[in-house]
Amino acid sequence: MLGMQRIKSSQRLRYTLIAITLCFSLWSCNEATSQKEISGVATQEVITVIDVDTFEKEALVAGAQLVDVRRDNEWEGGHLENAKHFEMNNPNWQSQIETLDKSKPVYVYCAKGGRSAKCAQQLKEAGFTTIYDLEGGINNWNSAGKPIQ
Questions:
Q1: Of 86, 70, 90, the residue nearest 123 (C-alpha)
Q2: Which residue from 86, 97, 120, 144 could staple onto 47, CB 3.0 to 4.6 Å apart?
Q3: CA-to-CA distance for 139 and 5, rounded, in angstroms?
Q4: What is the SS3 assignment for 27?
């Protein structure tokens, strides 16, 4: 009987420790997700994926930092007006992004959205604070009947 009490006590202790560990894990996850809110004010995301119409209104204005990250042959097939061509696999990639103003929004696009998402992450890591990525890339742009050069 004494042996059974030890086993039950040991099991209770184990379950208690598991429960405490789960509570701390859930609590820390909640803390991590709430880090976006500072003193009751929500912070803006650095990278935002935006639709074609919003991209057109914002990225095609004079002075916007618009970057096409597609390959040379894709660029030559047509691109957005006033876009800069910074091919991601280009050895000059880093020096090209250094020509952009980190304090101003940057608008990026590729063919479908995969490369521009990677580009947006690299820009974020480089210290850019506002990055907009065209949802679905230039393929969505073309499907919407928007102009290219």
A1: 86
A2: 120
A3: 68
A4: helix
- How many residues make up the chain in this entry? 149
Q: Hey, what are 127's tokens?
A: 């210290």
Are the C-beta atoms of 47 and 30 separated by less than 8 Å? no
The answer to whether residues 107 and 132 touch, using CB atoms and an 8 Å cutoff, is yes
Nearest to 115 by CA among 93, 137, 97, 132: 137
Query: CA–CA distance from 136 to each of 74, 99, 111, 114, 141 (Å)?
Result: 15, 26, 7, 8, 8
In terms of pTM, does the model score above 0.85?
A: no
Neighbours of 129 (CB within 10 A): 13
Q: What's the pLDDT tens digit per position in 70-107? A: 999 999 999 999 999 999 888 999 999 999 999 999 99
